[in-house]
Write a structure and sequence with these properties.
This protein is of the alpha+beta class. The protein has two helices and four strands, in the order βαβαββ. Helix 1 packs parallel to helix 2.
């Protein structure tokens, strides 16, 4: 599943990401796309707090952050 939150201002990306992560089933993968570096950091921290596996965090050529998490 992909959750594109490009252009959203804090704290909206964190709130929407946490809601999506809460609904995930074990083994599911979620890609979250944000444009704000603070949002990226907050989402990674929230995923770790929820016991998710942070598979990858990278920035694309357009400056958007892609955070890929997997529910254990």
């Amino acid at each position: 599943m992909i959750l594109d939150l490009s252009g959203e201002a804090c704290p909206v990306p964190l709130v929407k990401s946490r809601r999506a992560m809460d609904k995930m089933e074990s083994g599911e993968i979620l890609e979250i796309i944000v444009t704000n570096e603070d949002s990226k950091a907050n989402i990674v921290m929230a995923a770790e707090e929820l016991g998710m596996e942070v598979k990858r965090v990278n920035r694309d050529k357009n400056g958007r952050w892609h955070v890929i998490v997997r529910k254990k």
